[in-house]
Design brief:
mainly beta; 5-stranded antiparallel sheet; single chain
């Protein structure tokens, strides 16, 4: 983006929810479904500070699913991630 004189401003919003939880194995696991919302993001031309419109077919919201494992008592680590 730096090479193309562009930056992204705004907030990426998430709405994660746990859809499955497995605590019986050696490592606890969870499946997390997340709605990723790009509607408050804006790509700007750094030379003019003007917005660059997204392609008309660009979805502003999408669903992604992740599998996570609890590796210690503090952290959950993503082991698989796939956008829908």
């Amino acid at each position: 983006m730096k090479k193309n004189n562009t930056v992204i401003r705004g907030e990426l919003e998430h709405q994660p929810k746990v859809t499955a939880l497995g605590v019986d194995g050696k490592l606890p696991t969870a499946t997390v479904e997340d709605c990723i919302d790009l509607s408050k993001w804006q790509t700007l031309d750094t030379k003019t500070n003007k917005p660059i419109p997204l392609p008309t077919a660009q979805p502003l919201r999408s669903i992604a699913t992740a599998t996570v494992e609890r590796w210690d008592n503090i952290r959950w680590m993503v082991t698989e991630y796939w956008p829908d």
